[in-house]
């Protein structure tokens, strides 16, 4: 089976099950179904042009293949599948930890969304991150990463990988291109890792220049695009691999944990190799029923993202006028505003996340308490991409894995409130709730301008 996975594009095949002895099989045709470098389209256009999987009985929605294992009609077929002669490219499946038709279909949608040759979906965002890094980096080798990352990723790089795999990470301020270049050690550094829009400080990565620097030294570029689906397309800008926590914007319902790795078909095939593949051997398998649910949500992702981003921009502009210390890359005075404008996809906005720096954790907590329990503006909860606004004080929650020094280097103040702006209710209704909470605060001079 490993041989079949390595030699065929299982991620893009549209062939249905054939007779095992069909002499008309043409691996070259299968391989040509996607060009080496996909022609880029607007994300919504790309999704609309992707293969639409119909249900078993002609339903407009695909059927769920919930089986863990799959039957064969002839006893010899099973041995041929394990020998690598037959595989998913011809609709022959063995076991859903290896490949599942429903999960493969979601992968095709994710590949279309990000403009990559292939994608494979996993049980969580962290399983996607850990698997791709373990696939690309071996014992004794090095990763260069942004010093501002999601806390779980930072902990993986700082603590787990050095202990378990002898893999070290050099953290840098990726805005300093020269220092990033200096940190990469040719022959030892294998991956440059960063987030397209950093969690939680909303700095924007110069993906084209960072990719150029990495590729000049033979290093793979892996970008977490969880904060900016539709808004930014890292693969179009030079990145090799794009990671998602699908649990966030792509799901949109705060009810599913899932992840994805999008990249070259050859890399995704290697992840599924029977003897050396991290996906195959570590087993971060996505449930087919979860894949089905997610596939039904992706078609309206563009509409949701546009509304998230529209409201975030309006709120950020109004907060700034009130004298609040607001961080949002859609504001013209944000240091990365022009960069994001130059690399983002037209008409999708500047992201749905806002940071409001209250200075101290006590002030941040007071504001969040009022916003949830007094005016119902939003909910005190981690995560993002939900239809309700979600708020958390990053330093004591999603970035708590970083110590005080690391938080300071990452630009995370003790009172930094991360807001994932929702779209429920009307814009003016929610803004009125925000203003009402502010008026309840009694601390004089808290916001500078009054």
Automatic annotation (TrEMBL):
Any single biological process term in GO: transsulfuration
Region (Disordered): 1-29
Single GO MF annotation: carbon-sulfur lyase activity
Cellular component GO terms, alphabetical: cytoplasm
Pfam families: Cys_Met_Meta_PP
Modified residues (N6-(pyridoxal phosphate)lysine): 248
Cofactors, names only: pyridoxal 5'-phosphate
UniProt feature, compositional bias: Polar residues: 1-13
Amino acid composition bias (Basic and acidic residues), ranges on this chain: 18-29
Record keywords, A-Z: Pyridoxal phosphate
Protein family (similarity comment): Belongs to the trans-sulfuration enzymes family.
Protein name: Methionine gamma-lyase
């Amino acid at each position: 089976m490993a041989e079949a996975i390595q030699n065929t594009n299982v991620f893009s095949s549209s062939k249905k099950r054939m007779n095992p002895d069909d002499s008309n099989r043409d691996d070259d045709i299968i391989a040509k179904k996607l060009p080496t470098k996909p022609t880029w389209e607007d994300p919504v256009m790309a999704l609309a042009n992707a293969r639409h999987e119909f249900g078993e009985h002609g339903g407009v929605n695909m059927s769920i293949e919930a089986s863990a294992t799959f039957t064969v009609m002839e006893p010899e077929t099973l041995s041929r599948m394990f020998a690598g002669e037959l595989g998913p490219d011809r609709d022959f499946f063995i076991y859903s930890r290896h490949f599942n038709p429903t999960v493969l279909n979601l992968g095709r949608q994710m590949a279309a969304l990000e403009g990559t040759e292939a994608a494979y979906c996993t049980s969580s965002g962290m399983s996607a991150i850990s698997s791709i890094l373990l696939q690309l980096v071996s014992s004794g080798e090095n990763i260069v990463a942004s010093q501002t990352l999601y806390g779980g990723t930072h902990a993986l790089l700082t603590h787990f990988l050095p202990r378990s795999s002898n893999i070290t990470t050099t953290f840098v301020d990726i805005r300093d291109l020269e220092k990033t270049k200096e940190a990469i050690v040719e022959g030892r550094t294998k991956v440059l890792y960063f987030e397209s829009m950093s969690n939680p400080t909303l700095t924007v990565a110069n993906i084209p220049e960072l990719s150029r620097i990495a590729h000049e030294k033979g290093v793979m570029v892996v970008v977490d695009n969880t904060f900016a689906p539709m808004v930014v397309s890292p693969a179009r800008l030079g990145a090799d691999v794009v990671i998602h926590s699908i649990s966030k914007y792509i799901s949109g319902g705060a009810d599913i944990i899932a992840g994805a790795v999008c990249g070259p078909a050859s890399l995704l095939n290697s992840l599924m190799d029977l003897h050396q593949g991290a996906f195959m051997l570590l087993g971060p398998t996505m449930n087919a029923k979860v894949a089905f649910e997610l596939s039904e949500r992706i078609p309206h992702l563009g509409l949701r993202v546009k509304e998230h981003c529209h409201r975030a921009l309006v709120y950020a502009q109004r907060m700034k006028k009130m004298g609040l210390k607001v961080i949002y890359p859609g504001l013209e005075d944000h240091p990365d505003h022009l960069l994001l404008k130059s690399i983002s996809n037209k008409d999708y906005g500047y992201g749905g996340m806002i940071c409001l720096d209250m200075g101290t954790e006590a002030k941040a907590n007071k504001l969040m308490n009022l916003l949830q329990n007094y005016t119902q503006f939003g909910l005190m909860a981690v995560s993002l991409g939900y239809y309700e606004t979600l708020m958390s004080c990053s330093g004591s929650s999603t970035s708590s894995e970083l110590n005080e020094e690391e938080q300071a280097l990452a630009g995370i103040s003790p009172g930094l409130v991360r807001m994932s702006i929702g779209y429920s209710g009307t814009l003016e209704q929610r803004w009125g709730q925000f203003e009402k909470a502010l008026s309840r605060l009694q601390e004089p001079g808290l916001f500078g301008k009054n």
